[in-house]
Amino acid sequence: MANYVFAFHGGNEPKSPEEGEAIMAKWGVWMQGLGEAIVNPGAPVGQSSTVSSKGVAKDDGGSNPLSGFTIVQADDMGSALKMAGGCPILENNGTVEVAEMLAM
Question: What does the DSSP 8-state code read for residue 1?
Answer without folding.
Answer: -
